[in-house]
Amino acid sequence: MKECPKCGQKMSADAKFCSNCGQDVSDVSLNKDEQESIGYWRWIYRSWRYPMNSEGGAAPWYGIVTLLWEDALLFIGMAIAGSSFANAFFGIHLFGLFGAQVTNLVFDLIIILLLFQVVTILCSMVGHLFIFGTVKGFWHYVNRVTQASNCNTIVAVIAFICLLFTVNSGIISAGYNLFILFGSLFSLGSFVVALRGNPDDEPVMHDPFYGAVIYSAALAIAYALLFAFFRVIANF
């Protein structure tokens, strides 16, 4: 927390102006315990308890690394499940016959999903910028969106475990359904963060409804362009 040197008002660590008297507090030091960085796993744990509370001590790489390992778990699990099905029903050992191709495909899918997530975050930033007129930076925003949807760390781990149980089609089906839940929760987190500002230094400039419309329109256009791009790449 910061404390205003003029009136003593306490406010969030990233506030730039006092919410009580308007004093510039951008150069005011934080309390000692809040200046210390937050460890990665502690950040994960806090995000489960308080998804919408922005952690000022989080390193800028926490969000993007979390998205990357979540995506990797999901697609590695799907590759293992798909290979087991091919072996069980068609007698084809995918990793034995096409090991390099399967590995490259999984890697490509991880990068594609991460790209869609980054594009979603950028569209969320556009909506947030319209509503509040300010964004604190790309990596800070990635952390906020990831933190808002960080229950996906649990979803990704459970989905991966389900996909490993290749002898039970019901459990595998649950894994694929969890994959859909994963995407839904990430989209929800991006949407909520676009509409939610910090009351200390992000006053509402435009109606959030129109920010939501802008976010949705930007997302539709961006996804259409990405799908068109991948179709062109696939034809080469």
TrEMBL record:
Annotated InterPro entries: Znf_ribbon
Q: Which UniProt keywords apply?
A: Membrane, Transmembrane, Transmembrane helix
Q: Where is the Putative zinc-ribbon domain?
A: 1-24
Q: Which residues form the signal peptide?
A: none
Q: Mind telling me which residue stretches traverse the membrane in this protein?
A: 72-98, 105-133, 153-171, 178-197, 209-230
Name the record gives this protein: Predicted membrane protein
Species source reads: Lactobacillus hominis DSM 23910 = CRBIP 24.179
